[in-house]
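Notes taken during the Thursday session

The instructor put the following on the board and asked us to keep it in front of us for the whole hour. The protein is DUF1062 domain-containing protein. We were told not to look anything up and to reason only from what is written here. First, the residues (191 in total):
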Amino acid sequence: MRQSALPSVVRPCPDCPGTRHRPSGKIRVNASGKLLDVWLLLSCAGCDRTSKVPVHERVHVSALEPARLVAYENNDPAVVRELTIDASLAARNAYRLDWSGSWELETPAPTPRHALDALDDPSPLRVVVGFELPAPVRVERLLMRGLGLSRTAVRRMVRDGRIRLPLAPEAKARRDFAFTVHGPGAASAEA
Ligand SMILES: [Zn+2]
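Then, after some discussion, the predicted structure tokens were revealed:
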């Protein structure tokens, strides 16, 4: 799972009917004496209106690591990314993240489909799915795309024990997991 874009922040825009916001790439820091306010700045995808997401409110300057403060002041892209995908920041500020279009699945060549077809080896094929960003994606959908199989074929292979998953096919994964694919004889061999 490669990142192709950051997720959108979904919340109402006061100026237009749009709800999708993108990080503007900027972080604003305001100091009042020793107290700091830090915001992540967003742009409305519909009208470009800038809005702010509070990251720290009235926090004492000594409570932030100096390197962190420098990163905020320099609009560090890694920190913008980290804040944008932060589920707890989203929860705290009552908005939703829309991950559509934020990722693409990269499969090794030759595709696992070829390995699947040739799978007569008694030792199973172990497949690791690595997530570059925590986009929640249904496991079944990953398998369909990654293995080049239909939903029906995926479900059948799971049912037959040829694909063994650490989580349900309908579950959404958002972090690395591994599964195994077994040869056609696997199910009958165990029965
Ligand atoms: Zn707007």
